[in-house]
Amino acid sequence: MGRVVIDVMPKPEILDPQGKAVVGALARLGFKEFAGARQGKRFELEVDGEVDAAVLERAAEAARTLLSNPVIEDVVAVRSAD
Amino acid sequence: MRIGVVTFPGSLDDRDAARAIRLAGGTAVPLWHGDRELHSVDAVVLPGGFAYGDYLRCGAIARFAPVMDEIIRLAGPPTAAAPGLPVLGICNGFQVLCESHLLPGALIRNDHRHFICRDQVLRVESTSTTWTSGYTAGDEIVIPLKNGEGGYVADTATLDQLEGEARVVVRYLGFNPNGSYRDIAGVSNASGSVVGLMPHPEHAVETGYGPESDSHGALSGGTDGLRFFTSALQGVLSA
């Protein structure tokens, strides 16, 4: 069984309230070297067969259609997990 | 005059929306998320709530519900032969409309990261929409607001276009409750048939039950939201 991994991140120019909360908590815990944090999403899609170019293209299409909103997010990676 | 109200799994305010339609003098028609036809409705309200648990992104999964296929098809850019189906998206419904690309922009988590519930003052900026024609431009109204992900965002070009085409329908006044760009509380499509807003007009439609306001020099009795629904009824009747 193959697996496709898709990473989606909030666009750099869009405020990321979750990332802001994370970096605030890091600072309170003493991780003061981290000046910023952004939080995105990782999807893992399973396929019965091999992950080939056609599967990756379909995964990219799924990422554009459902898994991300192009107004606020970028699909930053679509790759085979193997 | 039949106005459909869609119930998704996780919708909360569908009954309030139906009630508002009835109080305005219309017939509320329940629509189910699995419906593939709209039962001859003249307009549609997408209500507040947490459709599909707000999983993935608010409205992202609801946007692909079977009933949305027909709504998106009928509410798309109007032509001479087919003036777009009027749609009002309230809160979660606004998020669904943005995910459907019937309205530009997106709603993200409130900048202060808290859920917020308050009586919110709004200024009605545009009355050339199906849903606000009964107001006067500049009207200040008070209706409930309750959201966790109500921050309206869009790129600068889109925001400038919305302002230039008078498509900012309502704006937060005095206090921006969620970090929305340019204090935008609601926007419309180009023709004014599709409107989305985060605050809840359907919770301010009956005397004594909505928030009181004195913006017109006298207590309004908590019905500041009713004209969203009477506007649509009058618009359809005169069309």
Structure description:
The complex is a heterodimer of chains A (82) and B (239). In chain A, 33% of the residues lie in helices and 29% in strands. Chain A has 82 residues and is α+β, with helices and mostly antiparallel strands. Chain A has one domain (2-80): Phosphoribosylformylglycinamidine synthase subunit PurS (Mth169, Chain: A, 2-Layer Sandwich), CATH 3.30.1280. Chain A has a 3-stranded antiparallel beta sheet with strand order 2-1-3, covered by helices on one side. Chain A is elongated and about 45 Å long. The model of chain A has no long low-confidence stretch (mean pLDDT 95). With 239 residues, chain B is of the alpha/beta class. Chain B has one domain: Rossmann fold (3-Layer(aba) Sandwich), CATH 3.40.50.880. In chain B, the strands form 2 sheets. Chain B has a 9-stranded mixed beta sheet, with helices on both faces. A two-stranded antiparallel sheet of chain B has the order 5-8. In chain B, a hairpin with a 5-residue loop joins strand 10 and strand 11. In chain B, helix 1 packs across helix 5. The longest helix of chain B is centred in the C-terminal third of the chain and has 13 residues, at 226-238. The model of chain B has no long low-confidence stretch (mean pLDDT 93). Classes of the chains: A alpha+beta (82), B alpha/beta (239). Chain A binds chain B through residues 10, 13-15, 17-18, 20-21, 66-67, 69, 71-72, and chain B through 56-57, 60-61, 64, 98-99, 104-106, 108-113, 151, 153-155, 179.
